[in-house]
Predict the structure.
Amino acid sequence: MRAHTPLLMFVLVLVMAVTRIHHFAAIPDASWAVFFVGGFYLGKHSRWAFPALLVVAFLADWYAITSIGMNFWGHYCVSPAYWILLPAYAALWFGGVWLDRCKPALNWRSLGLLAATLLASVSVCYLLSNGSYYWISDSWGGADAQRTFGGWLLNMSHWYLPFLKVTAMYVAVAAGLHAVALAMQSASSRAKSAAL
C-alpha cells in the first residue's frame, strides 16, 4: 500500500479540504483523523507530507473564514492559540507513525493497539488545542475572563467525547478499507500462487 503514496496523499487532502471547510455541512471535520491516518501511511515521508497537510488545513480555514466575508486574522478562532494546533496535530501524526512502526497484524491485539494509540493521540491533541484556546485565547470569554482549572475541566468535558467520536469514526472507516485492501491483496497472491 505504501507504493500508492501520491494517491493516499490526494485522498487525505481531499477528505480534509471537503470536510474542514464544511462544504457539506452534514459531514463532520475529518482533520484529526487525516493527521492520524497520514502518520500511519505517510510517516516515512513526514518531511513533506506533514507540512503539506498543515498547509491544506490552514488554506481550508482561510477559505472557510474569508468566503463568508470575514477577515481571517480577525476571526475568533485565529488567536495565538491557533498556532498550538501545530504540536496538537503532530501528536496525531506521530501517533499514526508509532502505530505503523509497531507493524500491527490484522487481529484483536492490533485493534486494541489501534484503539489505545488513537485514544492517547486524540487526548494529547485535545489537551493542547482545547487548553491553548481556553487559557491563551482572548476569544474565550474576552481578555478579562476569569479562567480557572475547574472551568477548563468543564469546558473540556463538553467537547472531548464529540472530537474523539468523530475521529474514531473516520479512523474506523480507514481501518476497514485497510483490512479490505489487505484481504484483496492476499487473495490475489493466493490466486497467482495457485496458477503457477
Observations:
- The chain has one domain: 2-191.
